[in-house]
């Protein structure tokens, strides 16, 4: 196998959890809710997945439990917001700290122990296609699921009626309500579904990309994913491209480790300045009154629209 | 927050007891004994004079971070960027500590000035992104936090690396001339205590009794309506970020020059985020904030005993603190307050 093809396969495979998380968070944010707890949710779901799969010997069960935990966390955030009137940012922030530290506490017994691997999906013929074959059709099922979710989420958000409703609630919950939609219910659904996928993402860390468990196992990945969602301009396809680019960055950093010490630590921080740049471009061009359009290539990378009511609670009438 | 109906003071204590009860239940669920944990924490925080000094050293930066956050929260701003502002303050202090020595006090005072300016600049950058480019301060702040992390790692492994070998364990220890003066053999951080006390007094005056405080709160409540009253809320957003950033930067100076005497990658100790927990629970009031900070610092200082004595993971403390803040917010939410009100009325 060519070294370049090998790198390609590695990037696709290692980016799996990040792709899942950014897709889940994009669905959540499209409905106007920020699930700020990613950093904590990833840690606790990664631990859940690994611990359950070690204890039961069944990684699929671990994967499903992680999804359940992810959606439970999301449920807490959205219920605090809509039912108790506690700011979603505050709850997300507190849960970030709480769940992260809880994972350190509960995960003590699982540090660096072996565990069962996730089943592989190997499709004859298809797996022999160069590049695509080995990276999709001769891989862990998780890789396949993540790749399938990208177009599905895009189709769901952009082309279905329910996707339109989710987006309209994210833009303006008031006018959605006037059209007979219950924005609270839609936000609850979008947040919980998003949380489920984020939980799967956490599982994909400990069952696949970064196998096993250690303290702070997915450290900083939650914050990085929040940045990539914005870099993706709230578009699941672009967010996924952002996730793969990040995977490529990581691989380069790893390869250069022997050349320049410190690069491995500094290079993973690239998404953050990029996030700020994207936000500047988005606000500068897409929302300006004179409707200046971004030049072609920049538009592809830095276009996109922030959901108008992102992070704002629904005002009760 | 917005429930106008006054509840009797008794409900406040009921809420406190409920919150402590929740913490005890969590301790039991995690397989620990609340009484053992509390005794161990108390002993670890106040057991000997040296331990009280250590608690003090933890209290000082956290109280600064919390005070910085009171300013930004009053302006309605989510200053997630505070961690980066602390880091920048520490970088500023290190830069001074490595370059100027001179007489006692000279270096520390320059460190305070430079560190506060660095923090203020980092805060201002976040405010500038918000005002000029409409970048939400949560995302702008988060981004700047990690840019600061990148900078500190670069400095520690690169230009400021230890003589001999670069390592993530930090820079060389600062020369003694750059340390903050302390008194008695216990090394009580006298200068730091004086500086923090002055800042507390200034903030009480400014936030509660000045036009600045009033306008800042008006900005926080409704930034767009302020145009009607002929003042520019953007100026107050800038001011809040500059002041908050400066005070957070000072926390970084203390971390580098008073606590570690060197620059380490995790110089902020997570105190910025901890401050956010404190101020969420204290609802931006200064005295409750200081009391809570004291409580939090004692728990952190005492928490180091848990591992030694009870073989408990040190993360237990953060688990307890964050869950207590969470349930405190629930017990103080408008829904629960309304419920309490109805119960009291019926009896």
Topology readout:
The complex is a heterodimer of chains A (317) and B (347).
Chain A: H1 3-14, H2 16-30, H3 38-56, H4 59-82, H5 88-106, E1 120-122, H6 132-137, E2 138-140, H7 141-159, H8 161-171, H9 173-178, H10 183-209, H11 221-231, H12 236-255, H13 263-266, H14 271-286, H15 296-302
Antiparallel strand pairs in A: 1-2
Helix pairs in contact in A: 1-12, 2-7, 2-10, 2-11, 2-12, 3-4, 3-5, 3-10, 3-11, 4-5, 4-10, 7-8, 8-10, 11-12, 11-14
Chain B: H1 9-29, H2 34-46, H3 49-74, H4 82-99, H5 106-133, H6 137-157, H7 190-209, H8 211-221, H9 233-260, H10 271-282, H11 286-310, H12 315-331, H13 334-346
Characterization of the model:
The complex is a heterodimer of chains A (317) and B (347). With 317 residues, chain A is an all-alpha fold. Chain A has a single domain (11-116, 156-300), classed as ABC transporter involved in vitamin B12 uptake, BtuC. Helix content of chain A is 68%, strand content 2%. In chain A, strands 1-2 form a two-stranded antiparallel ribbon. In chain A, 52% of the residues are buried. Chain B has 347 residues and is an all-alpha fold. Chain B has a domain at 61-288. In chain B, helix 4 runs antiparallel to helix 5 (106-133). The longest helix of chain B has 28 residues, at 106-133. The two termini of chain B are 24 Å apart. The mean pLDDT of chain B is 90.
* Number of E-state strands of chain B: 0
Count of all domains of chain A: 1
Helix/strand-derived category of chain B reads: mainly alpha
Q: What does the overall shape of chain A look like?
A: globular
Write a brief structural summary.
The complex is a heterodimer of chains A (317) and B (347). Chain A is mainly α and 317 residues long. Chain A has helices at residues 3-14, 16-30, 38-56, 59-82, 88-106, 132-137, 141-159, 161-171, 173-178, 183-209, 221-231, 236-255, 263-266, 271-286, 296-302; strands spanning 120-122, 138-140.
């Amino acid at each position: 196998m060519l070294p370049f093809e090998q790198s390609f396969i590695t990037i696709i495979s290692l980016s799996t959890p990040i792709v899942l998380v950014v897709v889940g968070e994009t669905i959540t944010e499209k409905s106007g809710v920020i699930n700020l707890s990613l950093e904590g949710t990833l840690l606790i779901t990664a631990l859940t997945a690994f611990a359950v799969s070690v204890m039961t010997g069944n990684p699929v069960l671990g994967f499903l439990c992680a999804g359940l935990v992810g959606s439970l966390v999301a449920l807490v955030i959205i219920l605090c917001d809509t039912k108790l009137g506690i700011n979603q940012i505050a709850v997300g922030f507190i849960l970030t700290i709480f769940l992260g530290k809880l994972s350190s506490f509960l995960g003590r017994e699982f540090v660096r122990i072996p565990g069962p691997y996730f089943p592989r999906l190997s499709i004859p013929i298809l797996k022999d296609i160069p590049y695509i074959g080995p990276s999709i059709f001769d891989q862990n099922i998780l890789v396949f699921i993540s790749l399938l979710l990208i177009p599905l989420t895009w189709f769901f958000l952009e082309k279905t009626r329910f996707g339109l409703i989710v987006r309209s609630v994210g833009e303006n919950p008031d006018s959605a309500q006037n059209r007979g939609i219950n924005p609270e219910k839609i936000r609850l659904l979008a947040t919980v579904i998003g949380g489920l996928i984020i939980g799967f993402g956490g599982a994909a860390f400990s069952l696949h990309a970064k196998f096993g468990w250690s303290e702070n196992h997915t450290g900083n990945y939650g914050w990085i994913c929040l940045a990539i969602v914005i870099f993706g301009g709230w578009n699941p396809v672009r967010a996924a491209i952002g996730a793969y680019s990040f995977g490529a960055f990581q691989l380069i950093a790893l390869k250069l480790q022997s050349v320049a010490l410190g690069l491995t630590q500094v290079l993973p921080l690239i998404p953050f300045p990029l996030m700020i740049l994207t936000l500047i471009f988005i606000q500068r061009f897409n929302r300006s009154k004179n409707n200046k359009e971004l030049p072609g290539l920049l538009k592809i990378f830095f276009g996109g629209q922030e959901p108008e009511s992102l992070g704002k609670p629904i005002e009760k009438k | 927050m917005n429930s106008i109906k006054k509840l009797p003071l008794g409900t406040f204590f009921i809420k406190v007891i409920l919150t402590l009860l929740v913490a005890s239940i969590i301790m039991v669920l995690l397989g620990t004994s609340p009484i053992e944990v509390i005794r161990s924490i108390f002993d670890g925080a106040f057991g000997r004079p040296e331990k009280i000094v250590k608690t003090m050293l933890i209290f000082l930066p956290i109280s600064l971070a919390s005070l910085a956050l009171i300013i930004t929260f009053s302006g309605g701003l989510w200053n997630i960027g505070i961690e980066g502002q602390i880091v920048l303050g520490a970088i500023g202090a290190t830069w001074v500590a490595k370059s100027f020595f001179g007489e006692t006090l000279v270096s520390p005072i320059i460190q305070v000035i430079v560190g506060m300016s660095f923090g203020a600049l980092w805060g201002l950058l976040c405010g500038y992104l918000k005002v000029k480019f409409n970048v939400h301060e949560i995302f702008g702040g988060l981004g700047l936090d990690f840019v600061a992390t990148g900078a500190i790692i670069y400095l520690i492994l690169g230009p400021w690396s230890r003589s001999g070998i670069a390592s993530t364990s930090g820079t060389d220890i600062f020369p003694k001339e750059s340390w903050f003066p302390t008194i008695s053999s216990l090394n009580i951080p006298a200068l730091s205590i004086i500086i923090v006390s002055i800042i507390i007094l200034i903030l009480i005056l400014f936030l509660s009794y000045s036009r600045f405080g009033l306008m800042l709160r008006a900005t926080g409540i409704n930034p767009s309506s302020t145009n009607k009253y002929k003042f520019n809320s953007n100026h107050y957003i800038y001011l809040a970020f500059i002041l908050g950033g400066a005070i957070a930067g000072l926390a970084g100076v203390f971390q580098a020059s008073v606590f570690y005497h060197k620059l380490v990658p995790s110089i902020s100790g997570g105190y910025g985020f901890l401050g956010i927990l404190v101020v969420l629970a204290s609802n931006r009031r200064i005295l409750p904030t200081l009391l809570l900070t004291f409580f939090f610092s004692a728990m952190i200082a005492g928490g180091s005993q848990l591992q030694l004595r009870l073989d408990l993971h040190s993360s237990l403390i953060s688990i307890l603190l964050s869950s207590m803040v969470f349930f405190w917010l629930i017990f103080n939410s408008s829904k629960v307050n309304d419920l309490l009100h109805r119960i009291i009325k019926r009896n």
